[in-house]
Amino acid sequence: MFEETLLEGAVALAKGALALAYAGGFLEEKLFPRYGRRLLWCVLYCAGELLWSQVTSWEPRLNFVGFLPLGLLFFGLQDRFFVRDRWRGLFVAASFVAGWEILKFTASPLAYLLFSVLDAFMEWLVQQDFFLRAAEGGTLLTAVETAWRFWQIAVLFLARFFQLALFGGYLRLMHRRFVRRDYPLHFPESLFLLLPCLTVLGLALTLRLMLTPDESGLPGLLFERAPATTLLLPLVSVLLLGVMVETVTLFQHLAEAREEEQKRLLLENRVSEVQREVEEVQDIYADIRGLRHDLRNHLACLAALPRSAVESGEWAGYIDRMRVTVERLDFAYQTGNPILDVILHQSAQRAKKKGIGFTASVVFPTGQAIDAYDLGVIMNNALQNALEAAEKADGMREIDVRTYQKNSLFFLEVGNDFAGSFTPPPEGVLPATTKPDKALHGLGLANIRRCARKYRGDLDIAVTEQGGRKRFRLTVMLYPGAE
Questions:
Q1: Lowest mean pLDDT among 191-200, 218-227, 328-337, 342-351
Q2: Please, are residues 247 and 130 in contact by the beta-carbon 8 Å criterion?
Q3: Whole-number Å distance between alpha carbons of 56 and 60
Q4: pLDDT digits (tens, 9 = 90+) for 2-12
Q5: Which residues does residue 419 pair with via DSSP β-bridges, in sequence order?
Q6: What residues are paired with 463 via a beta bridge?
Q7: Is the overall model pTM greater than 0.70, yes or no?
Q8: Which residues pair with 411 in a beta bridge?
Q9: Cβ distance 71 to 94 under 8 Å?
Q10: Which long-range contacts (CB under 8 A, 24 or more apart) does 47-56 make?
């Protein structure tokens, strides 16, 4: 009894270590001391497993649903040791528990076969005359009982080791086949991943019921009623593990295809932006041609002005008109970076054409480790979203942009009017796009978050309503020193 308890404790500790490594491959860790966190996780997991094992020894019927409390234990530990990610956490817990439960049916046939071999040997041995004569003194029987006990522990150890080895390989495959840790999981995708795990758990529960004692109290072993199951059960178990692994692989391919489609859409959006930039440049060239024509006229007029006009100051009017013409080519916003100047200029021109008010107070953070390209991606996506939302608003329509610094943090804020209703999503979740094809749109905020997290920052969304006017405000925080 003591040996079995010790073995189960070692198995529970090994499972705790595997659970920590598996969860760490999918979830973002909280700020805990690394070695202390690992030890505390393993101790808590091992204690939970042993406590539940003790409970099921008092009430064996609870063993049928043993995966539920152990799954809840795993899920609860995730919540304390890792950053909360509900759907990903559910998948991690379900795939872990399902893999362990179904692999029991690869270990139990192995243990049954080894015990059957020993039973057959012992049955043959007790029928031999030399054994009966040697056993008359009782010493041999004691030695045989000791050997039998040792063989029992050895068989249990081999079965558990075999199960743990297969389980570790399965977890490694699941982690390697899954997409990046930062890939966002939503309900439909999570359901696609969870259904095979739940199916495997249901089959494991069914098989466990088939292997339980019958009403007469005798073991209703499926292996005795159908010997072929000693080979079929391990085969089916491994195939079911393969189904879960291949489901994750298929999901990875679908996710990669979706990302490729998103990249294509981003490229198309970039082409559209280039086309708008070309139009802006064409407008600038048209202004330059107009300026050259106007300058010729101004010079001709100045040369033709009589002395009396010069003395009276009428020439000053020509100078003013020349200054207005030249100022048409100047960008209204001087941020200290040409990329941001162009983005603000283009956005202001688009807002003007649509009758939207536009104000900006933006200064590029010189002397800090922020790439102008990354800040340009953030501002361009934020202003595109703001323009699309403000265009649909009724009444007053305005967009305001500003940047500011607080100690080592750099902030970019974009506010705009909008129409309709908006409910802020849960923390850490981006708002869904209102466009029809939700899978291929709504990339602006995702791009903003990607660039912000490059600098250990993030984004925040706030909605206010006053006097029937609804305002949407996006705040992006960057930590330049973290690049």
A1: 218-227
A2: no
A3: 5
A4: 666 777 778 88
A5: none
A6: 472
A7: no
A8: 404, 477
A9: yes
A10: 48/73, 49/8, 49/12, 49/15, 49/16, 49/73, 50/8, 50/9, 50/12, 53/8, 53/12
Share of the chain above pLDDT 70, in %: 66
Burial of 348 (0-12, 13-18, 19+ CB in 10 A): buried
pLDDT at 158: 82
Q: How much of the chain, in percent, has pLDDT values that exceed 90?
A: 8
Which amino acid type is present at position 407?
A: N
Quick one: DSSP state of residue 332?
Answer: S
Tell me the C-alpha distance between 107 and 156, whole Å: 9
Rounded CA separation 4/134 (Å): 31
Predicted confidence at residue 403, as pLDDT, reads: 92
Token pair in block for residue 325 = 């013409």
In Å, how far are 94, 198, 296, 297, 328 from 288, measured between CA atoms? 66, 69, 12, 14, 9
Domain ranges of the chain: 2-268, 333-482
The CATH code of domain 333-482 reads: 3.30.565.10
Taking residues 305-322, report their average pLDDT.
59
Question: DSSP assignment, residue 137?
Answer: G
H or E stretch at 378: helix 372-391
- Angstrom CA distances, 119 to 151, 152, 329, stand at 11, 11, 97
Q: Which residues of 459-480 are buried (b: 16+ CB within 10 A; e: fewer)?
A: beeeeeeeeeebbbebebbbbb
Cα–Cα distances in angstroms (integers) from residue 27 to residues 89, 181, 249, 373, in the given order = 8, 7, 18, 29
Evaluate whether 153 touches 3 at the Cβ level (below 8 Å): yes
Find where tokens 């002397």 sit: 367
Q: What is the pLDDT of residues 409-455, one digit of tens each?
A: 899 999 999 887 776 665 555 665 555 444 444 567 878 888 888 88
